[in-house]
Amino acid sequence: MKTTPITTADLSRSVIAVPPLCRNADLSLSREENGKLIQHMYAGGIRTLLYGGNANLYNIAVSEYAELLTMLRELAPADMWMVPSVGPMYGTAMDQAAILKDHEFPTAMLLPTLFPSKPAGVATAIRHFVERSGLKAVLYIKDEGYITPELAAELVNDGLISWIKYAVVKEDPAQDAYLSKLITLVNTDMIVSGIGEQPAIIHLRDFGITGFTAGCVCIKPQLSTDMLHAIQAKDYAKAEEIRQIFLPLEDQRNAHSPILVLHHAVTLAGIANTGPVLPLLSELPAHLLPEIEKAAKELLAR
Hints:
Blueprint: H1 8-12, E1 16-17, H2 31-43, E2 48-50, H3 62-75, E3 81-83, E4 85-86, H4 90-100, E5 107-110, H5 119-133, E6 136-141, H6 149-157, E7 161-166, H7 177-185, E8 191-193, H8 200-206, E9 213-214, H9 221-232, H10 236-256, H11 258-268, H12 289-301
Parallel strand pairs: 1-2, 1-9, 2-3, 4-5, 5-6, 6-7, 7-8
């Protein structure tokens, strides 16, 4: 596992994949199936994995956290950067911060929540997490009400943030007052587009931010890697052509649940058996699975 300090090169050299977490029938962690998924993404050029919402770490037990960290560290190739998440609740994040001190991860992401939280309280929680864990944090901005651009900039300026995952959904991503403000306060080298392939071209081209995270990359990592390289080469026509290929599976995710559709898609495509979904989430209805399987297999075949 890569343990060196985070640099701009790390954020731009690879699509940041946000995979599901594979579990056995008894809900225990599946080392074998997670290993298959990691190797599939690695073979497609992925060098950074972010375990967060798609891995359903919102619902993980603190008692399981050390086992998770050990598994990720041991399964990671030597040049792969693994980023676990903590929280979203303050007490959980503080307990996980103490566990992280015994491992070698260079950063961790605080999962966002709007209830119960306030922007100033989020900033304080991040300060406490960094103090307790000794790690810089990934700031995940998923909603404009979560934290203000000014507070985010204060955390960056105080040296507490490794990078920012920006994932506020806009009907037109080119019209984004929040992101426009954020990039005047924070170096764009530290900001990553956090909503998959769909807004990535606009975010990187028009706002100048660095790299993007994605979930569907787990199905066809090489294609997503090719899209990143096309954007970096300013070949936006090629990038747009690739972006369109991801749309059918993204449409399924938007219609039925980004987390659950990806969880099922990895299994239905035959990449790895993700197993049962950890509650509080639940399985998707069976009648939805054929269309998800179709979209996933067609994407994999590309």
